[in-house]
Design a protein that fits this description.
Helices cover about 50% and strands about 0% of the residues. By secondary structure, it is an all-alpha fold. Helix 2 crosses helix 3.
Amino acid sequence: MKTTRTRIDAAVGMLRDSGYKGYLGVEHHTGRNEYAEVAAQVAEVCRAVALLRHAPFQGGPHNPLLPEGIE
């Protein structure tokens, strides 16, 4: 949760710029409101990825974090 609240834009940007071709995961382990907390974190990750569509691409070949044709 700390990453999605404080540095998700930078973290996702680094993954994109390095040419990362894997998956992103979100976990929450407080035992309280876990479904709602994970949903909020996923929304923050989606927001960060959407913002990358408007940022210049700094990395290598095709970026799997963005839809085809956007780099």
